[in-house]
Design brief:
Blueprint (H helix, E strand, L loop, with lengths): L1 H20 L9 H31 L5 H47 L1 E2 L5 E4 L6 E4 L6 E5 H6 L2 H17 L1 H14 L8 H18 L5 H10 L10 E2 L5 H8 L6 H32 L1
Length: 291
């Protein structure tokens, strides 16, 4: 029953559960904890998919006299598990290579045509629309502002926008979004949910908003987001004026930490990781004890 249980669990964690969590907007009040929960869901789905194949090997091979049919079934399960791992690795390589190449070219262009301000990592481009975004990198990151943003935003609003972008860079939200892009593309279309990637994208913005709104800068950030509505940003960048602005402004109006909800969410995340791990490890321990 363990392989079947793990297979069903992988289907639920990759499709049904993300769809259900996406219909629980209260979770957005604790973006840091909820991001941990979403990571646990994705990792547990992968562990369940891989653990199902390993559980078949345990059930079929670790007997007194398994016989050749059991070895054939176990070999097929191992092959399927290897295909899952290979798909994850290949998708991760493709997504990572594409994003890093795109950002590297964009940083080079920004350094050529933009001009540096007081901060070494900030570049200003001549453009009438109020635009602000960041280009993450392992060694070199850039925060890009347009001249339209400088002319339209006050000093406090501009400071809040810069704090928002630096929060993205410090928390490495780009890696989190990259992982969920890989997760979404790796699972078959019929079972995966597009909710996970979209919800995580909103949560990383809410998390950066929370960091930028410290020290009473929430109202200034709200005004800045309103001024930059619809400005957009290039592919591969993280922009301050992302989708879900109405939701983010609503969240900024509630600066409370909601510690109880955050604790419950983190416990749920830990439980999600423990469940597939226990289902994989327990049969192996039982088989070892019986030998």
């Amino acid at each position: 029953m363990t392989p079947l249980t793990l297979g069903l669990l992988a289907l639920v964690l990759s499709g049904a559960l993300p769809a259900a969590l996406g219909r629980m907007p209260r979770l957005r009040r604790t973006p840091a904890a909820t991001l941990v929960l979403w990571q646990a869901v994705a990792l547990a789905a992968v562990l369940s998919a891989l653990g199902g194949g390993l559980a078949v090997v345990t059930d079929r091979v670790w007997h007194t006299d398994p016989g050749w049919p059991s070895y054939v079934v176990a070999g097929a399960a191992l092959l399927l598990t290897a295909l899952v791992v290979g798909r994850l690795l290949l998708t991760g390589h493709r997504v990572g290579t594409e994003l890093r190449s795109l950002r590297r070219r964009h940083r080079h262009q920004v350094d050529l045509v933009g001009h540096r301000v007081d901060e070494n990592d900030v570049r200003v481009l001549e453009h009438p629309l109020p635009v602000a975004y960041c280009l993450p990198g392992m060694r070199r990151s850039r925060i890009v502002l347009s001249s339209g943003a400088l002319s339209r935003l006050g000093s406090g609003e501009l400071a809040a926008v810069l704090a928002h972008e630096r929060a993205h860079l410090k928390a490495r939200h780009d890696l989190l979004l990259e992982w969920f892009t890989v997760f979404q593309r790796s699972f078959p279309r019929g079972v995966r949910s597009g909710t996970a990637r979209a919800e995580v994208a909103l949560l990383v913005e809410a998390h950066a908003d929370r960091a930028a709104a410290r020290d009473g800068r929430g109202p200034e950030l709200q005004r800045a987001l309103g001024a930059m509505t619809g400005a957009g940003h290039p592919d591969g960048a993280l922009g301050a004026a992302e989708d879900g602005l109405a939701t983010r402004v609503e969240l900024l109006a509630d600066p409370r930490e909601h510690r109880l909800q955050a604790a419950v969410v983190r416990v749920a995340a830990a439980a999600l990781l423990v469940l597939p791990t226990a289902l994989v490890v327990w049969p192996w321990l039982t088989a070892l004890a019986a030998r």
